[in-house]
Structure formats: C-alpha cells, structure tokens
Amino acid sequence: MRGDTPSQSTMLSLTTTDDFIPEDHPIRRIKPIVERALTQLSPVFTQMYSKRGRPSIPPEHLLKGSLLIALYSIRSERQFCERLRYDLLFKWFLGLNIEDKAFDASTFSKNKDRLLEHDVAGRFFKAVLSEAKRKHLLSPDHFTVDGTLLESWASIKSFKPRDGNGPPSGEGRNPDANFHGERRSNATHISTTDPEARLARKGPGKEAKLSFGGHVLMENRNGLVVDLALTQATGTAERQAALMMLGRLPRRRRITIGADKGYDTKDFVAGCRKRSVSPHVARKRKHSAIDGRTVRHSGYVVSQRVRKRVEEIFGWMKTVGGGRKLRYVGVERNHLWATLTTAAYNLVRMAKLIPASG
Questions:
Q1: Residues 223, 143: one domain?
Q2: Cα(316)–Cα(118) distance, rounded to whole angstroms?
Q3: How far apart, in Å, are the Cα atoms of 63 and each of 57, 186, 207, 295?
Q4: Structural domain of residue 295, as residue ranges?
Q5: pTM for this model (two decimals)
Q6: 67, 144, 162, 225: which could join 342 in a potential S-S bond, CB 3.0 to 4.6 Å?
C-alpha cells in the first residue's frame, strides 16, 4: 500500500552521528590514527592559545577539517564549512553533535599564521609517521625521491616585467593580453599575484606555467611519504630538495635512494655518497655519473622498479588532494597544504595496511 508523507518533523531524537556511519566505512579506520596523533600534539595546542579570553575553535577541528578537504576533494575551505552544516560524516569525524553549528570559513585564514608559527602541520605529519613506525610499516633502508611541478594560483597574465615597463593592457578585470614576440624569463619578469611563483615547465615541448616545485621522499616498503618539501621551481630545486630531505632522515646505517634520470648528475651523486647513501639513480645514455659498481647490484634493479610508485603520490595529491592548481599564495602557505595533504595520503595507505583491530 502507499505510504503517507509525514507532516510533522521529529522533535526529539536519541541518535548520534556515530549511528549514521557504517561500521565498515574506511574512514572509521582513519579516525583512530588521527586521534592518537592529535593527542601527542595536545601540549603544543595549549601553548598556541592564551589562557584568558573567549574560547577559540579547537585546532583539532582545523586539522581534521583540512584532512577532510583532501580526502573528499573539497574545492575550498568555504565549501567545506558549508558542507559541515549538513554532512553527518564530517560532524562525526570532527566530534560534533548533530545540532552543533559549523564554524565560519574565516576561522581557517585567521588561524593559519598560528599553525605556521608552531609548525603544527609538520608535527602532525611526524605524529602520523610515528604511528606507521609503531606498526612496522616503514622501511629503514630503502627510499625513493622525486619531484613535480605544482601550478600556482597566479595567472600567466600576472607575469609582468620587474621594471614595470610592460606593454599596455586593456581595460577591465580580465584584459586581453598578447605575449607573442615578447621574451619572458624569471630574471626579467615576476608575478604580481604570487611573487614567489616561477615560470617553469616539466619537459621540452611542454607549456611553461607559473609553478612551485613539490618534492617527496618515499620509503619503498609500503610507499608511504616520510618527508616532503615545497620550493620555488628552479632548475636545481629537485636535487637540492632531495639532498636536504636525505640530510634530515634519521638513520644508523647506509641506505639506498632511487630516482629518475633527472638526478643523474655529479653533484647529486657525490652528495649522496657524502651522506652514506647509495644512489640507485636511472643512468643517462651519455655522461652518466653512475658507475658499474652501483648498477651490478640486484638492489639497483629493485629500486628502479619500485621507484615508479612515487608517481602514485603525486597523482593522488593532484587529483584527490586538489593540487592540480594550488589554492594559496607563497611557498609557506602552500607547504602547509602539501604537508597536510601528504599526511592524508599516508592515512589512506595506513588504513589499508593496518588490520581492522589495530
């Protein structure tokens, strides 16, 4: 028989947000890891805020919100706050009740300086890694490094001469611009929208765009990110960032590092050997810095096969994590985004690797 449409809404309910999340939902395995990591950061959160005044939005909500933005491909912080009003899964993940109101999107921007000052994103990333180490998910001996270009928020039209003597532009907010015949380089031009962005392209024949350089250090056992860096896009940024991350890596014995042909240079190979790192770098056909003593080992072949998994990290960051075109201005704020996004990637991987009882 035909059902009747109820004319009166429920006035009293005994359900919570937890009742609406399926028991086998993947995010149920992510939340405990996040909670343990945030518990480690509680003393840092206490130092961040004054003991007097009106209570602020908990920093745990900001970090969890940033993770949800990456996990569910939310376009902006404003869209996340709008969805938080009615999405019960988001409220459950943040620990809110059904009737709790969502906070305003300006909370993210107002507290971003505080998060940067205390390196909260970096501390959270390390706390997640410590959980992976506790579960024996990290390789202590074999790693892979790679870099990519992340398109900045700045438009190519904002790339103007440093001396301000560029050709006249049209009127309006988005005037027409003709760049044909104009020689432009980072030495003579700069973006007025994001002065830290640099004009770069990934390879010959590719379109040059205002970009930043994104770099990750991956361990080879399960493909987790153990370190990352976001820099200005220069010709040597990938190799410099790789050596910097290798120098920050805690270790007690010699390790291996896999990389593509872009790292086959004398300075990078020498830098690796100086740090007691075996450079398992893909060899160039001519003038390679990798000699036969490195290539003859069976571990070199394994490193070259496994290193391709690092592309999965960049692919996830750009598609799911929303990094195909960056949302923020400057290296510092984009590095904050990259740190939380790679932490979200690690959480997704760990949720698949850790047993349900863990």
A1: yes
A2: 27
A3: 11, 35, 35, 44
A4: 139-152+211-330
A5: 0.91
A6: 225
